[in-house]
Structure prediction request, 652 residues.
Amino acid sequence: MADQYAEIARVIVEGDDTQAAKLVESAIAQGLPPLDILNKGVVAGINKAGELWAANKFFLPDVILAADAFKAAMSPLEPKIKATRGGQPTRKFVIGVVQGDMHDLGKSLVIAMLASVGFEVIDLGIDVPRDKFIEATRQHKPAILGLGAYMSTTMLEMKDIIAELKKQGLRDRLKVMVGGVPTSQEFADEVGADAWGKDAMVTMQKALGLVGGSHG
Amino acid sequence: MANPTLEMIHGLLYSRGLHIGHPSGLARIVGAMTGGLMDVVPFGGAQIHDHAMTVARVPARLFYWKAELLLDTHMAVNHWYGFDSGNIVADNYNFEVEALGAKMIYSDNAMPTVDVSRPLITGPADLDRIGPLDTSRGRIPMVVELARLYGQKEPGLVSGGFFCSHWSLICQAMGYPKAVRALKRDKGFAIALFDWVNDQVLMPFMRAYARAGVKRTYGADAWAAFPNLTPELVEEWVIPYAKKLREQCKKELKLSAGAGAAAADYCEEDPSKFDKETMFKCFIVGAKTFPLKVVPSGMGRTQDWNMAWVREFAEQQGKGGKKIPIIASLNGRFMRDSTPDQIVAKIAEWIDILGRDGGLIFGIGNVPADTPSLNVHTAVKATHTLGKYPIAPDLSRVRIDPPTFQPFDEWLKGQPEADTIFKTREWKPGRTPVAA
Prediction:
């Protein structure tokens, strides 16, 4: 059994999406507990990929493929996990680049990574006005709101968005993550965010952490 | 002296000890690129398009559509800063995909950007559907005209046309994650993509350049920078196709096409992950896209690099105790976010380690639009002052006063680019049908 979990983790690290899906399907068919398959196999695999990334042994192409394998593994697993949780809805992540900023390549990577670990990502796009973030938060009730900026001038908008969330009584109901080239942990602390996404991989890992490490 | 050939010869002779006359910017660059000592360390310039547009206060919806405006604005801002190179680097990455029909995002204050959420290519069948590049579409005629004008106004080896190299064009057309999947999982599709870019997109583009009398083109490939691609993947994919395009253009068009610029550029963002072995691999592979043997740097987080590593590499690659030339690129965000004192200190540190024996050229990776002009002026002044040969034994004792410079608009009056820029400011949205 432990070998099966290790094998699932291994193929996810290797980015083999076909094998990842097959092994998870096989484990489900054998009656292994879905949450064990998830935590001991699938999450263990993506976490290992993250460790290799941090240790300079994995590069962006490897991370993309590992995320794909993760997604493939989640496909047969997700309905089973939802069933064990009594149909609890998918966690939502609302994301957007703040007003005045047109850069969205980094955001695209973050969306790919978040989607691969089961978040339902609502992309508000680029150059997003403050009111639209507030409206989307009210409408979608996300677990996490992600704010991106590429320029030191536009990133200041994040502080105002978080202040507006507080003013509207929405801040306590969600976590806020900030990211983008000019941001830092210090900046995230300063503006009152819950976490800073240094890069797409870290954003994904921290997002999972913020919602309790689960995927369903 | 306004003859680029003579300027280059002057640079070569000066760098070998024949100190006659005052070297021009081009002479300084040529002398330093061949590893020699000039009068000062040259400041080569930067990719500057959004910043130049901001400094000159011209609207994006004209700047990126009008060849003469784009060129004149670049040249004016380059001259205002006192760069040693008249080099301009346009927005390389969007011309082809836009003309091929990709969804674009147009803005009042930034370059046109491809909308990666709606990719042009999702699978192999799209390659046949899209067909070859029609060089009469989009901004392709404008960028060909830009190259022609650039050759007229800046004759010599610097000027040329711009294009997006193979891998970056694939990423622009289908998004980076999907492009990576093709590369790693579906080699047949990846080959079809690279062949399509080369034969159906870039060759028609190069033919259009050749028809306009353009002799040189430069293709950028920032999506092939590290860690987007490893040096091994660059070696496997980017370099062979850059070579293929170069050879085809040389044979068929008598045109020099330099593809793959910025491929394997060491762009690790996390200083705790800096790794000498990987950096050196990137240097070796990245230098293959240069016409001369150099240590390349471009957009990386160079402000945190250990420059002793860079020197070690340059010495390893040199012969007879002489290091190969080093292109030392100041990071654009560092330039935007630092104080003038921090910029001076960084330049002093780099000249001390890398430049005492010549063969060093400064530049800036990509200047963000909102970079304070004071910072760029400071960098140029500090490079020329601290980098005056022979280099002072203790650079911390060399005083760098704040640069004095006229505001851009005052300086511009009487410059050849003044009319083009001032008239453009009279434009109001809606009057000229230039963009969506």
